[in-house]
Amino acid sequence: MTLQYHLQLNNGDVGRYVLLPGDPARCARIAEFFDEPQFIAQNREFTTISGYLSGEQVSVTSTGIGCPSTAIAVEELIKIGADTFIRVGTSGGIQPGTQTGDIAIVTGAIRDEGTTRQYLPIEFPALADPEIVLTLQESALELGFPFRVGVSHSKDSFYSEIEPDRQPLSSQLTQRWQAWRAAGAICSEMEASALFILASLHGKRAGGVMTMMAENEGLPTDQDGEEQFHGDRAIRTAIEGVKRLIEKDRRTATS
Q1: Strand 103-112 to strand 84-93: parallel, antiparallel, or no bridges (unpaired)?
Q2: Is 48:42 a contact under the CB 8 Å cutoff?
Q3: What was the pLDDT predicted at 67?
Q4: Core-most of 63, 103, 134, 246, by most CB within 10 Å?
Q5: By the 8 A CB rule, do 77 and 14 touch?
Q6: Which CATH superfamily is domain 92-197 in?
């Protein structure tokens, strides 16, 4: 077995189904939904906990913020047997009418970042797996959570999005944001495009479910806003989605 340099993981440490939050602290919250959760490893921004759902080994690994560290995590997880990934996190809503706490189920990502250009030409789309998208929709409906389905905007700069007027390129940033909104993009975050491109390259499955902040609302400023934004809707949707994928995969394997 080869120990993965950044994740400090070996074959057998993770299941084929892996949830990917950015924040290492969110791993423990996600693992609360596992049966028999067990801490596996922590190195830099990467924390991994494994357990079981519906009798199948599953894992959660944090990626840190942004596409570069996400690409590292996904590359190394694939090397030790993971093949189904769901990004679980937070995002900024783009469409008018989005309420803080609404769920984004992502079908693809705008590659407005530099990492994936090191893998494929920019013309290649970053797409989520259709089966995962459908399964997450079924899960959100079952749980009764408000959600939108559509394209995410993956970027490199957090503050250029939420405070464009402070930046030298403010007019360009605002114009691009308006273009994403006009084209129907539903949210903005910093990891999905890397996950989707790596999954495409390696023939794996990937999807994403994220809690959204209301458009133009900025960061939460009170406890109520924090609870809505960092609540467990995205986590519960992802957990239910993995359970459904496990059952679908079992039926496919026996048919």
Answers
A1: unpaired
A2: yes
A3: 98
A4: 63
A5: yes
A6: Nucleoside phosphorylase domain (3.40.50.1580)
Does the model's pTM come out above 0.85? Answer: yes
Q: Max alpha carbon distance in the chain (Å)?
A: 58
User: What's the CATH number of domain 1-89, 3.40.50.1580, 3.30.70.270, 3.40.1190.10, 3.30.420.40?
Assistant: 3.40.50.1580
Mean pLDDT of 120-138: 98
Query: How many whole angstroms separate alpha carbon 83 and alpha carbon 199?
Result: 8
CA-to-CA dists, residue 242 to 93, 147, 206, angstroms: 24, 18, 11
Is-same-fold flag (1-89; 92-197)?
A: yes
> What number is the average pLDDT over the span 225-253?
88
Tokens of 29: 């919250």
Is residue 234 within 8 Å of residue 241, measured between CB atoms? no
Parse the chain into domains and list their residue ranges: 1-89, 92-197
